[in-house]
């Protein structure tokens, strides 16, 4: 396919906010794509070159792109910068410049453009900035205006077509079966090998049948299993029992550890909750993983600052310092880290995803049992019980230790990759549950919310009163709907410290956009002064979910949506992508359960 044709599809995708229309356009594109280019096309339309787990970054700042535009279209950097500022978008500016320059472009194929972009991304080291600018300029000058528009956006992460992997999975089904009947099989495969490009190539070449042979593979992340919430702790045994596995919920970084031996070498890759490659962040885990007595293994763990001598865990604020890319060694020395292993999905050539948890746990004991007391990779503790009083006592104990709560597990469940369900139930300490338990009231029944809610920051209101000094006076929060659009849920204002205000105000700067993103559903009444593209997720604690005519999340036939009472910022969740935020459906279901709980 010529890149110009792909640009035509991108232009159509940009022009719609209807998920059905997007799915149709994508399915048409995928049908037209050849078997050897479909993977590259999938990555490109998601604004990337490789799946996130490979961790290839362009390392191109807007300033560099402006320099490339200037060189490509024989103008000055000042003029190119002026055009970008005037249009508020680097892609639109590239389009104008290419048009004025009468760039007709060569007929470059998708593969040729992809190769050129890949070369630019890979170039590193001394002098690479200048080389990247030159190569980008040369690529842009070979393209027609529409192609230039999209090629200029991708390296800056500004493609933003308003859909995510979920829509692409639907489109793949449409491509291969003509309807959505293939979606389940495709999603199952994607859950255990989260590489959408590789998956698309496979479906294109071998059809749906080829997916049944697809299993977890060391080196390719598995989509993490997620935990369900519960309002009434008394229901936990009924939902996951009769005997359940009770584990402490540690508050660190979800870390998937992959180890495999190949050609005499041992390879380790670590992935975060949103499947990014975090191998470079945790050298001591990599070091310990290499020593595991396995041919190959995939482990699910929580990495957390841990002081073995006193058996205490670092609070999240301390563990999080490990995220700084440049001071890994220094922080590794200061904050010792341990990965607490709570699941295993693969061992020595065999996928364990479909095996019951009690069997997977036996594998863990076999593999790590003797190491429980020492080392960087440790077996997470677990208590088996069918007694609700034991669970309540464990929760209280976990709370008293300053931990997040518990995860209660169904021993018969498979590893539910990519889905939230009662196979894992989280009982959290930082919610109203805590108050009830501490006060000994309501027998552990929760009156407020059983969990925090992760929201997208959609925009900001200009400052009023004492907070003007921060530049903004509050934020608009939203949650994703089933159609992948974002619906407003609440304002966030007073429930923040000055420090948090300053940080959030600073963090949104890079993501401001001139107009409301097309995938937002926000009533005029609550429209913020500043719009922010979908990028930043924050964890919010609230007293209650209420009905509201102003917000669009969970809006029913009576036109009333849902909102939060007394929202407070817990923290920014860098480990979550916008579509990983709590969904509008989940908020609705929490609202319904809140009503049943209070009427009990
Ligand atoms: P959620 O992400 O909201 O579904 O809550 C589950 C999260 O708790 C996981 O993503 C892990 O990061 C964390 N966690 C901590 N300890 C455990 C454990 N023992 N089992 C499962 N998840 C755990």
From TrEMBL:
It is an enzyme of class 6 (ligase). ATP binds at residues 247, 254, 273, 302, 342, 420, 426. Residues 340-467 form the ATP-dependent DNA ligase family profile domain. The active site is at 249 (n6-amp-lysine intermediate). Gene3D superfamilies: DNA ligase, ATP-dependent, N-terminal domain, DNA ligase/mRNA capping enzyme, Nucleic acid-binding proteins. Keywords: ATP-binding, Cell cycle, Cell division, DNA damage, DNA recombination, DNA repair, DNA replication, Ligase, Magnesium, Metal-binding, Nucleotide-binding. Residues 573-600 are annotated as: Disordered. SUPFAM superfamilies: ATP-dependent DNA ligase DNA-binding domain (SSF117018), DNA ligase/mRNA capping enzyme, catalytic domain (SSF56091), Nucleic acid-binding proteins (SSF50249). Residues 573-582 have a biased composition (Basic and acidic residues). Its EC number is 6.5.1.1. Its cofactor is Mg(2+). GO terms for biological process: cell division; DNA biosynthetic process; DNA recombination; DNA repair; lagging strand elongation. GO terms for molecular function: ATP binding; DNA binding; DNA ligase (ATP) activity; metal ion binding. Residues 590-600 have a biased composition (Basic residues). It catalyses: ATP + (deoxyribonucleotide)n-3'-hydroxyl + 5'-phospho-(deoxyribonucleotide)m = (deoxyribonucleotide)n+m + AMP + diphosphate. InterPro entries: ATP-dep_DNA_ligase, DNA_ligae_ATP-dep_bac/arc, DNA_ligase_ATP-dep, DNA_ligase_ATP-dep_C, DNA_ligase_ATP-dep_cent, DNA_ligase_ATP-dep_CS, DNA_ligase_ATP-dep_N, DNA_ligase_N_sf. HAMAP family: DNA_ligase (MF_00407). DNA ligase that seals nicks in double-stranded DNA during DNA replication, DNA recombination and DNA repair. PANTHER family: DNA LIGASE 1, DNA LIGASE 1/3 FAMILY MEMBER. Belongs to the ATP-dependent DNA ligase family. This is Probable DNA ligase. It comes from Candidatus Sungbacteria bacterium RIFCSPHIGHO2_02_FULL_52_23.
């Amino acid at each position: 396919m010529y890149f110009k044709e792909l640009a035509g599809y991108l232009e159509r995708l940009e022009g719609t906010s209807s998920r059905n229309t997007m799915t149709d356009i994508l399915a048409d594109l995928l049908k037209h794509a050849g078997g050897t280019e479909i993977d590259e096309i999938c990555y490109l339309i998601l604004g990337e070159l490789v799946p996130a787990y490979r961790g290839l970054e362009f390392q191109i700042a807007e300033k560099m792109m402006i320099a490339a535009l200037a060189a490509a279209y024989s103008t000055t950097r000042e003029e190119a910068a002026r055009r970008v500022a005037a249009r508020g978008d680097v892609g639109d500016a590239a389009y104008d410049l290419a048009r004025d320059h009468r760039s007709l472009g060569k007929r470059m194929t998708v593969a040729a453009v992809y190769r050129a972009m890949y070369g630019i991304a890979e170039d590193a080291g001394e002098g690479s900035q200048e080389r990247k600018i030159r190569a980008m300029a040369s690529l842009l000058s070979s393209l027609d205006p529409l192609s230039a528009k999209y090629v200029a956006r991708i390296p800056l992460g500004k493609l933003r077509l308003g859909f995510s992997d979920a829509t692409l999975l639907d489109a793949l089904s449409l491509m291969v079966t003509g309807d959505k009947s293939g979606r389940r099989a495709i999603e199952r495969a994607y859950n255990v090998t989260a590489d959408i490009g590789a998956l698309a190539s496979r479906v294109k070449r071998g059809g749906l049948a080829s997916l049944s042979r697809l299993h977890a593979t060391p080196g390719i992340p598995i989509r993490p299993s997620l935990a369900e919430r519960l309002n009434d702790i008394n229901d936990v045994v009924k939902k996951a029992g009769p005997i359940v596995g009770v584990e402490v919920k540690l508050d660190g970084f979800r870390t998937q550890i992959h180890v495999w031996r190949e050609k005499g070498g041992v390879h380790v890759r670590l992935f975060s909750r949103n499947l990014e490659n975090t191998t470079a962040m945790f050298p001591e885990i990599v070091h310990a993983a290499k020593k595991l007595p396995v041919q190959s293994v995939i482990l699910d763990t929580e990495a957390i600052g841990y002081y073995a001598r006193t058996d205490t865990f670092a609070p999240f604020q301390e563990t999080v310092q490990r995220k700084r890319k440049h001071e890994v060694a220094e922080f590794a020395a200061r904050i010792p880290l341990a990965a607490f292993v709570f699941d295993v999905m693969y061992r020595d050539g065999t996928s364990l995803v479909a095996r019951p948890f009690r069997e997977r746990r036996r594998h863990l004991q076999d593999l790590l049992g003797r190491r429980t007391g020492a080392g960087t990779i440790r077996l997470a503790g677990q208590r088996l019980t069918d007694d609700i009083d034991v669970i309540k006592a464990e929760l209280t104990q976990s709370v008293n230790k300053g931990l997040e709560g518990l995860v209660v597990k169904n021993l018969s469940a498979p590893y539910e990759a990519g889905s939230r369900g009662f196979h894992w139930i989280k009982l959290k300490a930082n919610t109203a549950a805590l108050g009830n338990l501490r006060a000994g009231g309501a027998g552990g029944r929760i009156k407020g919310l059983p969990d925090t809610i992760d929201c997208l920051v959609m925009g900001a209101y200009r400052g009023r009163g004492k907070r003007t000094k921060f530049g903004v006076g509050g934020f608009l929060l939203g949650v994703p709907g089933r159609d992948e659009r974002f619906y407003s849920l609440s304002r966030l204002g007073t429930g923040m410290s000055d420090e948090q205000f300053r940080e959030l105000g600073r963090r949104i700067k890079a993501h401001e956009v001139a107009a409301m993103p097309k995938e937002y559903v926000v009533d005029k009444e609550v429209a913020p002064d500043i719009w922010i593209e979908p990028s930043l997720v924050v964890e919010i604690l609230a007293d209650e979910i209420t009905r509201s005519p102003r917000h669009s999340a969970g809006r029913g036939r009576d036109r009333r949506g849902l909102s939060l009472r007394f929202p407070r910022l817990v923290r920014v969740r860098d480990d979550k992508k916008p579509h990983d935020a709590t969904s509008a459906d989940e908020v609705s279901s929490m609202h319904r359960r809140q009503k049943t709980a209070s009427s009990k």
